C-alpha cells in the first residue's frame, strides 16, 4: 500500500508554502537491475482486487497509457506482453509546523530606521519572538512496478512523491505519471528531483 513506502517530505512542503509555484517539484526514486528497456516495449496493466471496476483507477490507467505510448510502449494482452505494469498510489494530508519570527508592534521602527517605543519615545529593536503556526498540505505519491511476464520477476520499480500537486489525487496524478516516466530508467537507488512546468 502507498502509505507503507510514503515518507514525510518536509522540503517539498516548504516549497509549497512559499506560494503558488509555476513548477511542480517531485522526488523520484527507482530500483532496477536491468540497464534499460532494450527489449520489446510491450506491456499489459495489472490490477489489484480494489482496483477492479473502479472508475477513478480506470481514469488513471488511461492517463498512464497515453504517457507510455509517447515513450514507445504498445499495449498487448497479458499473455503476450513483455512487461506487466502495476500501479499503486495515494494521498495523505499532512501538517507542517513552522516557527516564525514575530516582533512586538509597540517597538516598530520609526522614521529613518530608528526604533520607537511606547508613546513615540525612542525604544529599542529587541529580538523577535517566535510563534508556531501549522500549515496543512497534501503529499501525493505514485509507484509503478514493471514485472517481466516471462520470468515473473520485478525488473524495475519507480516511486514518485510531490507536495506541489494540489490537494486532490486527481490533480496531482498527471504530474506524478509524467515524473515517473520522465527518464526510463532512472538510476537505481538514487532520488532525483523532477521539476515540471504548470501549464
Automatic annotation (TrEMBL):
Residue runs in coiled coils: none
UniProt keyword Signal, yes or no: yes
Top-level division of the source organism's lineage: Bacteria
Signal sequence segment: 1-30
Key words of the record: Signal
Pfam family, one: DUF4136
InterPro entries registered for this protein in UniProt: DUF4136
Domain named DUF4136: residues: 28-185
Protein's UniProt name: DUF4136 domain-containing protein
